[in-house]
Structure formats: C-alpha cells, structure tokens
Design brief:
Structural class: mainly alpha
Shape: globular
Strand content: under 5%
Distance between the termini: 38 Å
Number of strands: 0
Amino acid sequence: MISESGSRRGLPVRRLVQLYTGLTLYGVSMGLMLRAELGLEPWSVLNQGISRHTGLSIGTVTIVSGALILLLWIPLRQRPGLGTVSNVVVLGLVMDATLAWVPELDSLGARIPLLAGAVLLNGAATGLYISADFGPGPRDGLMTGLHRRTGRPVRLVRTCIEVTVLAAGFLLGGSVGVGTVVYALAIGPLAQFFLRRFAIKGAPAKPSPVVARGGASPERAILPE
C-alpha cells in the first residue's frame, strides 16, 4: 500500500504529466477545429485573421500573441507560472504540427464529427491542464487580472474580451461559423465535467483562479483558454 506521504511525493509528477498532456491535447483540438472549417473559438479567429495578413503560421501567431498578452500582465500585477509559460509555447507548436499531419477535408460528413470531436477533446484538455494547477494561460490571466483591477464581474470581463477579440478576428478574415457557437455553448459544461474528472486527490486544497463556476471572484468561474 502507498502511504499518504508517498502519494504526495508523487503528486508533482502526476501534475506535470497532466499539464503537458492537457496542453498537447489542447493544441491538437485547436488544429482539428481549424481543419473542420466550420468556425473557430474567438482567440483562434483572431490568430487566424492575423496569420492571413502576415503570412505567419497560425501556430506562430498563437505563440507571439500569447507572449504579447503576458506583457499586459505586468500592469495587472499577475504572476505567470510554469503552466502559463508552457501554454504560450506548446499550443502553437502542437497546433502547427496537427495541421501538418491532418489533411484538409472536403466532405461535410467528415467535418461535422471532426468539429464535435475537437470540442470534446478541448474540454478534456482544459480539465487536464487546469487541474494540474501550474497557473492559468495568458488569456485567462488577462481576464482574471482585469477582474481584480476593475472590480467588474468575471463573466462581464470575459464577454467583453471575447466579443472584442471575435470582432477583430472576423474583420481580419478569421473563420466564424457554427463551430464558434458550438464551442461557446459546450466548452463551459465540458470543462466543468472534466475538471471534476481529473481533479488530483491529495493535492493541496487551494482554489484555482480558473476553476468552478461564474461569480464575483475569479475563483468561481470556468475560464477555458
């Protein structure tokens, strides 16, 4: 039988595995959503629009935009963690790799289940990497930082950011469609389910800034990246 102390010593390893598995799967899901060509989540809409105007790959744009968003953390007095920095690098690299391996699809009959699978995978990935508790992604941190500085409700801050990002991405030529709506409706419940599923027993009991359900503080909102 594994003792409680032995179990706790193994927690950092499990948390690291969850972090990088989650981030990898998140990048894969973003690439699959792009291949489905039925609409992207707001930040990917913006990154795709920028990609089309700069000639950079969408993965590269994702990395650069994540790094730039981290600069906004400075006046908000947010502190990045291992998960934050890893999020910036891993998502873009995996997204580009996924696009290189998965061919474009013409059949709507193939693209619809691909979209559904990508959104489901994104929910599972969100649960994995957030439960690892190594810090929020740069976009989530921007949101929670603005919440703390302005005192506005998390859901209001999140809505304002994502509407702005979505509008900017659409104007730049990013893909908005049924997939955008499906993602918006499904990711909250999916993330909440997988956060419970992948919660690490025996980990220190402290609230995560990106876990649970919306309310007046960042500790009470699901904030998927």
